[in-house]
């Protein structure tokens, strides 16, 4: 025990340290057994659509081929890591055909042991298979099918440096790190029983489950009547015996671990099934992070773990860091801690449970819980973490469980299993989770502040095992890496595929027009003026033709006049003057009639075509406009503030006015199939509908879109085309290109109101060569 | 004569037409004989540095290998076309070694006829050589060495359409065009004598010049005592006889031309040496433009012709378009006009010259001049061109010549030749023009509103024969074309060489830093904050280190604090607060000492390194600071408002204050070699000096610049590096990259205050593959 470290609590008064506490590096690994719709372990191989499991950084298999393992990268907040895990869950669920992810740590219906398939990794991964075979032999395959959650954690280097400075540590940073991480581990080990008591969630298993006894080698049923966590219990995912390693210094740790390996008790550190592990950088022997292995799957959560559970676990680790230690952590202390784990796992539902206090005496579990909770609460107040909404809400939830032990998830699971049966209950949960996953297909949880297009691209990357790194979050600037390949992408569609000058051409409407014109693509013809006198005196050139008079750059359509006849010189001059009020440069262009379509082009292929329609409802002869809007707004694709592919239709002043012009109000009841528009503009942001036309537009228009892209040597563009009639082939004058966008959104083509998901996120990754 | 067209004058009341009159398409072709420094025709081949003359669109040879021909593309104003010509003149002059451009239409010292080399165009151009040999045989090589200026002109299609509409012409546009262009030609032919009288400028030739008489075949001396333009005279650059073609309709024109060719009088239309020619599109028989061939070279103008002369010629053509014709243009009228040309060319200096009026009677030249001038002046008033400064000033100049005929250039040339001798006078002028060309090397005349970098790129393009087209002038957006190759460039350095994501990386300072850091390039290390509380509480991380606290985006350095010690927490916190007052996101970075250098990288090569020094003067023990500044400001590289590579040093409040701090004022006299700075900042815009360091920096820094460019996969960048000592190799911490710019200026590396021209404009064209 280092004296300086032990008195680290003092540093909590330091405001800089307080402000840095919630930061850290967080990671999660989670296993779920794949099951069929009857609750039986899936016999199919790991799905190919989820990539090469040997190289995939996020999705692989654990012990068994049927046991999916999800791995998040290290992320900077609990919210992010939880979101990443949830997104992994979504992506895997969406891509499983006729299968579900088993939401319980205790296994589903298993076949005969010999039919439980060990994960296959091909020739390159033959060592992995060998290792699994040894485990199967030693522990029985059934035991290896127990699934759980590992929570990885390290402090930020900023906090480490601040702590080191605050306590005036004179040694080097690495030594300081070892010291504080070992302290965290020791305190965690001492108090770990609390996490199991709170969050243990494998109280029962299916009656059919038999596991090899590590003592006798016989297959036996599992469970004790008051169990909270079979997985964490002595019959669970544990070594043959309780092996102890010495956490009082790094040297002692390595030497105790070596002894266990030399004696043949375990093959490597990986086989030491501790509730928490020290993890090291592969190339150095420096501590990289801690791995908390104690959390069971939570069947009530789609992702298998609630955010609050993670917040509390993080808090528990911080508490372990700052909590003063009275003594070194000796063998006797290890034994007491292990005993308490077993007691809580196996009998944690017993309200009168007795545990062992640090001095070896039996003490009421409730008393010990309350004492420990009070100490954690005090710690939170000391470091002002109680001012943080997430952490204090997590603490309140825990307080509720301590006050009402029957509210614990373990009780709820047991109750539900009694009602519905072990398999049925969990199967229903699994189905529910899958539905939820499918409904939030457009979302990357934990990263909802990014644009939907970026979220979708990241989701596609995640499925393929392309790692991403957010370089500038507010700019949606990410890097994508797979093997040696690296790409930088901004806003999903601004990539290295395009050359700079093509983008500059698109950015400049005048230049776009000139180049398209030179390539015989129709654009609204017209002239630009810097001089009002010249523009005013050009009435003769436009007389009798439908024209648009507009400022060269315009926001929200200000200063634009459409003259459909243009036979009054005075009106024309006024329109010119209005445009010049908004810009020193104006355009007078022919007015193009028809409907507007967005063509999305990638690498000379039209990959999506979309048309937007103003906010509208369709009557059923019974409901009012207000009711029809409310029903339409229930669609999970509709939300508020650009967080969803479509926006909810509003019932506000603009809509009221527009309806009034048509003789309606919000309470008007529409006839069956009567369509009423609530807005003139077709923007998605005001509740408009997006309709996929990719397969419904004459090929000739697609050819024009490609020809245009080639003219500017553009690889990715969102091209806006006016078309008179999409079923009639393009002629010289029944269409026109209005604009080519250099950063077109992709989500609108993936989640349209009507039509197919055109998977533009996948197509962009394809094009980038991933 | 078409009645509608003849009464076209009415349309001049139309404001739209008035406003469109000065627009048009203008082009110039000009010949100059290359001479040595003794005034002898150069015997060297056309310089290779000026490109392949067979394909070069702007620079080729005319009849003789020694006769450079400059060709501007069609441009939209007289100012542009004059500027382009002047720039051609500059580029050719700069690239001639030990040779000059002969500034007079009458030839320099010629060798024996057989030694005058016919232009060589290689095998592909063998037909051109053949044609020239026939001309040599027919006209004598000496006559072909008479050089001149051709002015090409067409109306804008906008004006043509407006005119057609105004006079209610019902036929098709092409027929309308034929009619008005033929009218222009006829009126021009009638009155062309006036242009010769005004602008004729080959009054004498060198006494040694003898030309083959077209009548007798003998070699004879040229000239008559009152000649104005030998070149336009009957012994000048003319056919054997006066051949007439019929300009009353296009059909008649072609048939009269065919007759001349069939009779063997001329080989093709090209051999018909008319004062004005109709020109046609090659593929159709549509009129493209008119070619005025009457202008002599003006030895007093570097470019060979003044802008005013071009403005008046344009005005003369417009007058010809609108001037009512009393009769058709018959043979007798042609003869009168030809006679007048001969009279003016040969005797135009005679104050009592008589010409022939349209009715065939002799009339005083002065009377005819005054009448014609009055009519042109009235036309100008009718169409309000008198409100245009350029055109009315051109008219005033002409008025001055009519009032004082001895002021004409022809008189001045004759006078100077009398004083200095024919060869000497023109040789001196040629030398003076060459010096002027060299002083404006950074400028593309007529396009001075573009950035200097773009002007330089265009100049390099011009030399190589790469055609350019300005797509958006205010944006400096141009296209470059040569053969099948086309490139689009904005601001000289934003090109297709770079991919979009590399540019986005450079645009984002945070991302640039992250990527460079990951590539082990040193950048100022630091942290970014969105939260003031967090930043304020991070004093411990930066205590005792030199830092810069700055808003993430900053203009003019606002909100930046440099803390060189950083040992006062309160001062630190204040600096944080100040930065947050300017942006919601701030950076705290280590402060990097040393001097800043701009590295220009193209395609993984450092092509220029520049260091900037604040405005300064160096004493001589006698002069005051004010005088020293005035002398330094005489440098033609220094100007005002970014139109020159350097800016003049100002003597304003900021300079006064800064000098005062050092104990000086503007009148202080500095000791010999004493250097005093007038500004703290080193910006060029406030009179700073730019110093080329390309060859004076240790290679290791260049390697770092290249490594950085590769890290971002950037092809063109201006990289700003802080370096402690440029002579010491780079170590881990004696430099840092501050910024990488995606649109760096090139002119600063081409025209530094001290150092070589690094020719970045040429290197960019090289990289683009031209």
Helix percent band of chain A: 25-40%
Any guess at the CATH architecture of the largest domain in chain A?
2-Layer Sandwich
Mean pLDDT of chain A: 93
Structural class of the helix and strand makeup of chain A?
alpha+beta
Largest interface (CB within 8 Å) is between: A-B, 48 and 48 residues
Beta-strand level of the residues of chain A, as a percent range? 15-25%
Q: Count the helices of chain A. How many?
A: 26
Number of E-state strands of chain A: 27
CATH topology of the largest domain in chain A: Creatine Kinase, Chain A, domain 2
Low-confidence stretches of chain A: none
Distance between the termini of chain A: 50 Å
Apparent shape of chain A? elongated
InterPro entries (chains A, B): ATP-grasp (IPR011761), Dala_Dala_lig_C (IPR011095), Gln_synth/guanido_kin_cat_dom (IPR014746), Glu_cys_ligase (IPR007370), Glut_biosynth (IPR006335), Glut_cys_ligase (IPR006334), GshAB_ATP-grasp (IPR040657)
Cofactor (chains A, B): Mn(2+); Mg(2+)
GO molecular function, one term (chains A, B): glutamate-cysteine ligase activity
Pathway (chains A, B): Sulfur metabolism; glutathione biosynthesis; glutathione from L-cysteine and L-glutamate: step 1/2
